[in-house]
């Protein structure tokens, strides 16, 4: 049984977002104060939208904070399915307008072809990453580590020492580019941000086994290298 993460529950999403935004902002500012720069990796989807909005109002030295996504659908950044579009609309404004954002999608036709350029675009990011915010799907995926992905692709994403990987999940829309497990764990703090009873049930199921390929979120939960805090609200 897996039991490595710190689990924190909140009575409301507002309470969760307020506390998590405050904690992330504090960690980013502490990183800037200590090392001159900070890095923040975030997830797409609907769950973090209000968190992004709360974070964008934090008065920290955003001009020295480097921001990117843990994964991206290989679509144009104006597409409704683009995580970059969501982050730009909800995080990269207000106090955070001066943050140094770098998207993962580029001009190449496929994530495989665009991998090298995507890696190069992240070459200036401070590492280890200071804060990583993950989500989780109902199938137990995080980043774009999908149980339904071709086995070789999932193996590469979970076991390679590369920074990024291309993934073509069978039952999810669009080809993807994603940070690898090793890259995600090369961070100072990971947050798993969950909302709703269904996600809580999936999380509890993930704790019952160490079969990473069945539920890739276990690759983050069952490790001792990087601290993981789970923030959940009903």
Describe the structure in your own words.
- The protein has 234 residues and is α/β, with parallel strands linked by helices.
- It is built from 8 helices and 10 strands.
- A hairpin with an 8-residue loop joins strand 7 (164-167) and strand 8.
- Helix 1 crosses helix 2.
Enumerate how many helices there are, as a single number: 8
- Low-pLDDT stretches are none
Mean pLDDT: 96
Question: What is the strand arrangement across the widest sheet?
Answer: 1-10-9-6-2-3-5
Indicate the radius of gyration in whole angstroms: 16 Å
How many E-type strands? 10
Largest sheet: 7 strands, parallel
The percent of residues in helical segments reads 25-40%
**Which structural category fits the helices and strands?**
alpha/beta
Per the principal axes of the C-alpha atoms, what is the gross shape?
globular
Order of helices and strands: EHEHEEHEHEHEEHEHHE
Distance between the termini: 24 Å
The proportion of residues in beta strands is: 15-25%
Q: How do the strands and helices of this protein lay out in sequence?
A:
Layout: E1 6-10, H1 13-35, E2 38-42, H2 49-56, E3 65-69, E4 71-73, H3 83-90, E5 100-101, H4 111-121, E6 131-134, H5 151-159, E7 164-167, E8 176-179, H6 181-185, E9 190-195, H7 197-206, H8 218-221, E10 228-233
